[in-house]
Amino acid sequence: MVITVALLPTLAIIASLPFNIFGFGLLSGWLGTGLISASLLLMVREPIWADWFGGLQRMYQWHHGMGIMGYVLLLAHPLLLAGHYLTLNPDIAWQYLLPFNSHLPNFLGWAALIAFMLGLAATFALRLPYGLWRRIHVLLAAAMVLGLSHVWTADGFSFSLMAALLPAVIAVAWRLLRADHGIGARPYEVSAVHHPTEQITEVVVQPLSTPMPIAQGQFVSTAFFEGSNFQGCGEFHPYTVSHVTKNNSLVLTIKALGDCTRHIQSLEPGVAVRLQGPYGNFLLNRPSTPEVWIAAGIGITPFLALLRNHPVTQHTDMAYIHRESSNAPYENELQTYATNQNLLRFQSLAMANDPAPLFEWLTNITRLSERHVYLCGPPPLITLITHWLQEQGVPRLQIHFEQFDFR
Ligand SMILES: Cc1cc2nc3c(=O)[nH]c(=O)nc-3n(C[C@H](O)[C@H](O)[C@H](O)COP(=O)(O)OP(=O)(O)OC[C@H]3O[C@@H](n4cnc5c(N)ncnc54)[C@H](O)[C@@H]3O)c2cc1C
Questions:
Q1: Which atom of ligand 1 is nearest to the CA of 279?
Q2: Is 257 in the pocket of ligand 1 (CB under 6 A)?
Q3: How confident is the model at residue 8 (pLDDT cuts 50, 70, 90)?
């Protein structure tokens, strides 16, 4: 469906394009515009859409992939048109390639390309603080407006322009209203707050309307609002549900990692909460073969959700990585599960930046290359472990992970 939306502006004009370099120039422009416009539909956080793509993170990968492909095609657009004019008059070709010239459509087109370039550079500069990254990402919306203005001034209002404009407007409005302002999000209320460690807050939220159906390991997009002495940051952030109680309350286990999550440490019962979701398929539909689970720090939450719900049903070797033993709040709980379940073997691993203890533990697992491995934690560690596992012969398709970061 998204691909059809991406192709629609091009399909509407393809029959009228000349079969030469000029035609290819126009084709790359329309295809690029259509791809970028349709890619915006993939930034909405609708659980059903995310399921179609195999999860929100996979859907965002498509969003990025289509955006980049679109940008490359848009870059090719002025080059191909200039190539066409080169055969007629090199001066006109040169004018075409100059970003700052007096011809309004060209000026708008180049301004769009530059805004896209800056926005994309920020998108992939993962080290930027999240809030700043998000604000710079908005540049891409400005780039889209400039790009569509370029089409309008160059070509007038056409069906193709409308086919590119509509998905973009719908997607941006949908994303702002639903995901960012939480229209339609389910109302919950904080019913209890615990502090297993200085940095971790366990929050129990109870439904005030129909409870959300959650499968083990799934996550919800959550915003904390007001209580009598607490004012939440009101933004939606993703947290894994670490337990669903019998009365449909949800437990969120939240580590203080930035402004919003630090503030959550002073949360109190009675605070209004809004939830969207559920999202994620990290631990769903697993084959019934022996498994390895690796949880780093707060990446323990999806595994807690499984273990708190029922005993493991297949041989499972689990490692819980943490920086120091004094800061491993779930060690005792996990050790108790392992003591009571024959199929579960548990190892607590205190390690800082050197992954050697983890690799040593993995080396001792029998038939590691036949196991399905489930990883959850910070992206750099996941990348490191994934590479190591592949070097040890574990096929990529047997390595599954949830990254606690989406961009
Ligand atoms: C699928 C998923 C499940 C998660 N589950 C848990 C969990 O169970 N417990 C837990 O403590 N944390 C979890 N997180 C991480 C949590 O969302 C971030 O720690 C939190 O959003 C940080 O917000 P902040 O404003 O305090 O910090 P910031 O300083 O704004 O951000 C710290 C880091 O958190 C990430 N982040 C910030 N805001 C968002 C956002 N809106 N969406 C996605 N990532 C963001 C970014 O990587 C950023 O670099 C999960 C994240 C994802 C993607």
A1: 1
A2: yes
A3: confident
Decide if pLDDT at 168 tops 70: yes
User: Which tokens is 217 given?
Assistant: 């390991």
Q: Is the CB of 271 under 6 A from ligand 1?
A: no
Distance CA 251, CA 254 (A): 10
Distance, in Å, from the CA atom of 323 to the CA atom of 99, rounded to the nearest integer, reads 51
Contact 34, 8 (CB under 8 A): yes
DSSP state of 157: S
Q: What angle do CA 51, 57, 61 make, to 5 degrees?
A: 110
Q: Give the total residue count for the chain.
A: 407
Q: Tell me, what's the pLDDT at 370? A: 95
97-101, 166-170, 190-194: range with lowest mean pLDDT: 97-101
Joined together, the tokens standing for residue 359 give 């690799």
Contact 225, 219 (CB under 8 A): no
d(CA 220, CA 263): 19
The amino acid occupying position 387 is H
Nearest CA to ligand 1 atom 19: 257
CA–CA distances in Å: residue 38 to residues 116, 138, 156, 264: 15, 16, 21, 36
- Cα separation, 85 vs 94, whole angstroms: 9
Q: Determine the distance separating the centroid of ligand 1 and the alpha carbon of 303, expressed in angstroms.
A: 17
Residue 3: which of 51, 50, 70, 56 has the closest Cα? 70
Q: Tell me what pLDDT residue 287 has.
A: 92
Contacts of 330 (CB under 8 A, 6+ apart): 196, 300, 304, 320
**How far is Cα 266 from Cα 280, in angstroms, rounded to an integer?**
28
Question: Side chain identity at 142, as an amino acid letter?
Answer: A
Where does 138-230 have alpha helices with state H?
139-155, 159-174
Assess contact for 255 and 199: CB atoms under 8 A.
Answer: yes
Token representation of residue 122: 């920020």
Task: Give residue 318 CA to ligand 1 midpoint distance, Å.
Answer: 24
- Identify the structural domains of the chain with CATH numbers, from first to last: 2-180 (1.20.120), 186-279 (2.40.30.10), 291-403 (3.40.50.80)
Q: In sequence order, which ranges of 249-292 are alpha helices (DSSP H)? A: 259-263
Question: Does 234 sit in the ligand 1 pocket, CB within 6 Å?
Answer: no
